[in-house]
Design a protein that fits this description.
Blueprint: H1 9-13, H2 25-45, E1 50-53, H3 58-63, E2 77-81, H4 85-97, E3 105-109, E4 118-122, E5 134-138
Parallel strand pairs: 3-5
Antiparallel strand pairs: 1-2, 2-4, 3-4
Helix pairs in contact: 2-4
Length: 143
């Protein structure tokens, strides 16, 4: 099922664990919100953005070592990769600053100071405390 021109529900529910990973209707609503945010970024970036982790069932989240109250459990988060992570990061930061999008968290995960290994973004949801565009850098290796 396509959500936007470039993102499908299947991308947000894909898992390599072999475990069931079916979102409920509430999670699908959050997934749709994230897909629309990513579509805005994709439209400006002009190249594919890959969702490497979206919705995670409790079993999938446990299998991949996710946080016990991860936004992924609710369909309210996505981890993404692309060819030029630095450019996508800059677009996301600019959109947050201009209030073109509203995120709960934006996290530069691992990688180097020039490019993260992946970007995590999440939106506010009823299961976790509201945050406003909290920006974090985790495990960045200086080179």
């Amino acid at each position: 099922m396509h959500i936007t021109d470039n993102f499908s529900l299947e991308e947000f529910t894909r898992t390599t664990t072999g475990l069931p990973n079916e979102p409920n209707s509430e999670a699908i609503e959050y997934i749709i919100q994230i897909a629309h945010i990513l579509q805005k970024v994709r439209d400006e970036y002009g190249q594919p953005i890959n969702v490497t982790s979206g919705y995670r069932s409790k079993e999938v989240n446990k299998a991949v070592g996710g946080a016990k109250n991860s936004d992924h459990l609710y369909g309210a988060a996505a981890d993404i990769t692309c060819t030029r992570m630095d450019i996508v990061w800059e677009i996301l930061c600019r959109y947050c600053a201009s209030k073109k999008i509203q995120l709960r968290q934006l996290i530069w995960e691992y990688g180097t100071q020039y490019s993260p290994s992946w970007i995590h973004l999440s939106i506010n949801n009823k299961h976790n405390k509201t945050k406003n565009n909290e920006m974090l850098f985790i495990g960045v290796k200086k080179i």
